[in-house]
Amino acid sequence: MSTFKVLKKEEVGEKNQAIFDNLSKNLGFVPNIYAAMAHSNTALGDYLQFSNSKTSLTAKEKEVIDLAVSQVNGCSYCQSAHTVISKMKGLTDDEILELRQGKASWDEKLNTLANLAKEIAVTRGKVSEATKEAFFNAGYTEETLVDLVMAVGIITVTNTFHNLTGVAIDFPLAKAL
User: Fold this and answer.
1) Is the pTM of this model over 0.85?
2) What is the DSSP letter of 125?
3) Counting CB atoms within 10 angstroms of each CB, which of 19, 48, 68, 172 has the fewest?
4) Separation between Cα atoms, residue 68 and residue 5, nearest integer Å
């Protein structure tokens, strides 16, 4: 049950109202997690700027990270939202469930990325040399490693916010592992 109020457009400041309009235009609705972030006059805009920043990661690679880290962090909201988004990026239900476990048996490069993302979340960045070496051997670069850390940080913010607030999930509930 939600312990944190999901705000409506008329309940937020002018800056957040403009963001709500933009989200409604682009997504068709304002996700509850974003509407709850609007309790702050600045956090939602700052978060969206951070999460929409340019990266060397592909959209699919970002979903790999989001799924693996959200599972580690036990965030049912993000597991559900990123299941929907991942399907839009061409991933199957079985692939999504496997990515949430930090694996991708069908693609060695994505497997390496999922494994490293999971290990970063579990160890708070104190990953094994073997995992880092596998990442670079898979063709990833130092630039990608930096962008991976940023992506882990972004999804961790959302995971933490949901786990703390219990905002109602407004996506189809992801299957339990």
Assistant:
1) yes
2) T
3) 172
4) 28
Q: From CA 105, how far away is CA 111, in angstroms rounded? A: 6
To 5 degrees, how large is the angle CA 81–CA 122–CA 74? 35
126 by Cβ neighbours in 10 Å (0-12 / 13-18 / 19+) ranks as: exposed
Torsion, Cα of 40, 45, 50, 56 (10° steps): 160
Domains and CATH numbers, the chain: 9-51 (no CATH), 59-165 (1.20.1290.10)
Question: How far apart are alpha carbons 56 and 62 in whole angstroms?
Answer: 10
DSSP 8-class letter at 12: S
- C-beta of residue 67 within 8 angstroms of C-beta of residue 96: yes
CA distance 111 to 51: 23
- Residue 33's identity, in one-letter code, is I
